[in-house]
Amino acid sequence: MKIGILQTGHAPEELKPASGNYDEMFRALLAGHGFSFETYPVLDGVFPDTAEAADGWLITGSKFGAYEDHDWIPPLEDLIRQIHARKMPLVGICFGHQIIAQALGGKVVKYDGGWSVGHTEYRLHGAPVQLNAWHQDQVVDKPAEARVIGQSDFCANAFLAYGDHIWTAQPHPEFQNAFVDGLLRTRGKGVVPDAQLQAASETLDRATDSTQIANEIADFFKKVRTR
Q1: pTM strictly above 0.85
Q2: Which helix (H) or strand (E) holds 83?
Q3: SS3 104
């Protein structure tokens, strides 16, 4: 099964040697499940010729806001709607979660409650999961057809599903603790409050449930569907 990775951001240059770029993190997260991958760096204007160019799609995180004025965002929203219309499997993480919601009628804002960074507890399908977060933007109004399958005290629409073909998450299962440590030292300073950066740094030794989420995403992609 070929997964097309729609890359919407780049990891900080100083962190790439150890952690890789965002598309590489997802290749590592989903390794061993029998997928092949092709990356389309849409933020650089590189798009697939058609929604049928892959069997399933995954949209990465990004430092950009879904609501910002970038020339690659409208065509990405168009592609999301094409994938949705064909009921092809689509996964969105962080920015991907947000842009899918926005493209399908939801609302994304810079949340006035501030940031969520580092180790965070969510409830997914009614059970607790521990994942790394890095966001201020949130989906505050979900699309009418979306259903909430997971949330946290901070983020009410943290996991959304649309029918049986779209699965999205606000947290980052692909972010390992070492990468979050790098973000705290690079992109966090001067942006995220210092006290929050310090609190997040004190949780870097805690395990996450990334493997569980990787298995759920893999099962989601492989699910037999009739269009």
Answers
A1: yes
A2: helix 73-85
A3: coil
